[in-house]
Amino acid sequence: MKAHERHEIATEMAPGVFRLEIPTPFNVGPVNVYLLQGEKRTLVDVGPLTEDAWKALTTGLHSIGYKVEDIEQVVLTHHHVDHCGLLEKVRQASGATTLAHPLAAPYVELDEDFMVFHDCFFTELYKEAGVPKEKMIIIMKFHQLMKTFSAPARIDGLLRHEQVAPHLSEWQVLYTPGHSQSHLSLYRAQDRVMIGGDHIIKHISSNAFIEPPRDRSRQRPLTLVQYRTALQMCADMNIELVLSGHGEPVTNHRELVLSRLQKNWERTDTLRRLLERGEKTAYELTALLFPTLYEKELPLTLSETLGHLDLLTILHQVEIREQDGVLYYYL
Questions:
Q1: 3-class DSSP state for residue 46?
Q2: pTM of the entire structure?
Q3: 60-76: pLDDT as tens digits
Q4: Please, which residues have CB within 8 angstroms of residue 137's CB and are 6 or more apart in sequence?
Q5: What tens digit of pLDDT does each residue of 207-233 get?
Q6: Segments in 31-111 forming alpha helices (H)
Q7: I want to staple 7 with a disulfide (CB 3.0 to 4.6 A). Which of 21, 62, 163, 322 is the partner?
């Protein structure tokens, strides 16, 4: 059997939990979608809006005797297009009910009013970070990404932290924000299995993306602080198996979490060393931290820099001054 054919066959990862590997056009590689055999046949995530993803989804379901039309509900772990892009196509084909975190709704529905606020937020954020004017085009690139790899879809039900997942009586919803404000995971206590989305991934550390605040104020969420706290919450739980949104399952979640938390402090140390040479903007620090990556992946790398500057700021290990709307960091 060829490798690509193996990837088109759904794999049972735990009782009643099947993994489907769905290709994406992104650097992260394939995304894992899970079919749960609960009181209702449920997909956890759906993949991006591409022909290759649709083919892999339909082929994967067929390998375990299902069609897309048999799906009765969809749960989204978060709103990123590699996880939610096919939602409307699945809804139209199956009539499935869609469930997500409340903060996923404006992204998934492509709410125009929210998108205007979103753009204003990032225009201000990037200006404060010292991003040059010619780089501001990345705000429009986000819209292109959303419109290319997802279609506006409806969210039917909003999920709350620690509730029993609808029609999945063995599964509990857990809010696990950080990678995204809308991120949630599902946990089954009887065999200690977590479907973790992009919260805990074996081969890469999840980026804590900067996003607008939920109350539309000027105060942005401290996403890396959030992410670390949600990781620590999971480290305190009895979890035998984390089924991730990308890559292979995690069986040593406490050890992995500890290693990720330690790496944060290594990066803050690097930032302090860079600031020993004089004050710098977040954009300048991003260019120094990620010299080969920052121009190509500015939202990701700038989020990483700002998250670690947040850690230093709340511990009073860095100072900030403002000049002409730009923030300068110094020791």
A1: coil
A2: 0.95
A3: 999 999 999 999 999 99
A4: none
A5: 999 999 988 877 899 999 999 999 999
A6: 51-62, 81-84, 87-94, 105-108
A7: 21
